[in-house]
């Protein structure tokens, strides 16, 4: 399975492309914003495509041609304003969904926020609410398509070394989770068709199980 990783140069994205390239059944195509970001991925043997998410659907669809799945890991980041949140986390996500459809790609994995229900928007801080709202509407747009989607809701992301063990459920108490383990969950989701049409939260938790077992429990 060839996988287009959107936001490949991000922290989750780099782990993800690395794990995909180590897999026997998957192969990555890294969608990056600048050519100077390409060397990391080329050293892994991954194909690259230079596309800015603020470009049009046709440009993104061209990057998605010939792949079997799209993973959206892109994000505007915590140090940008509400404008970039709208342009990347909402509009960029929706354009990527539409590009996947245009390119004939059925499988789509979305990396979302921990809780994107409407109450979560109301409960969020003033600075965080726009991000939750953007993710809410991107998730709803994806669920309204006929794509074979999986929506992953990570807990508080850390750069700690992954353990390969997580807690996965439709709803869990919020806790931390390493970005490296979220990348492992994405790979396991791509390899498990039972995750199609599902969305779930992921944390490390007090009694984690191996990523493969955790994803199989969904």
UniProtKB/TrEMBL annotation:
Location of the NAD(P)-binding domain: 7-192
Can you tell which superkingdom this protein's organism belongs to? Bacteria
Q: Which CDD domains match?
A: SDR_a5
Please report the name of this protein according to its UniProt entry. Nucleoside-diphosphate-sugar epimerase
């Amino acid at each position: 399975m060839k996988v287009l990783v959107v936001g490949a140069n991000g922290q989750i994205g780099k782990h993800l492309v690395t794990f995909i390239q180590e897999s026997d059944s998957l192969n990555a195509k890294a969608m990056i914003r600048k050519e100077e970001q390409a060397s990391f991925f080329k050293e892994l043997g991954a194909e690259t495509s230079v596309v800015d998410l603020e470009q049009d659907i046709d440009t993104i669809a061209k990057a998605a041609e010939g792949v079997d799945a799209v993973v959206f890991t892109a994000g505007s980041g915590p140090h940008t304003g509400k404008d970039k949140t709208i342009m990347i986390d909402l509009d960029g996500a929706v354009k990527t969904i539409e590009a996947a459809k245009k390119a004939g790609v059925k499988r789509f994995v979305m990396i979302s926020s921990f809780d994107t229900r409407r109450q979560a928007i109301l409960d969020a801080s003033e600075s965080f609410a726009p991000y939750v709202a953007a993710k809410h509407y991107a998730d709803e747009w994806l669920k309204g398509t006929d794509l074979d989607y999986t929506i992953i809701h990570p807990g508080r992301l850390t750069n700690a070394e992954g353990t390969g063990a997580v807690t996965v459920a439709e709803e869990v108490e919020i806790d931390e989770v390493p970005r490296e383990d979220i990348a492992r969950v994405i790979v396991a989701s791509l390899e498990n068709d039972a995750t199609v049409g599902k969305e779930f939260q992921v944390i490390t938790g007090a009694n984690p199980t191996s990523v493969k077992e955790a994803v199989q429990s969904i």
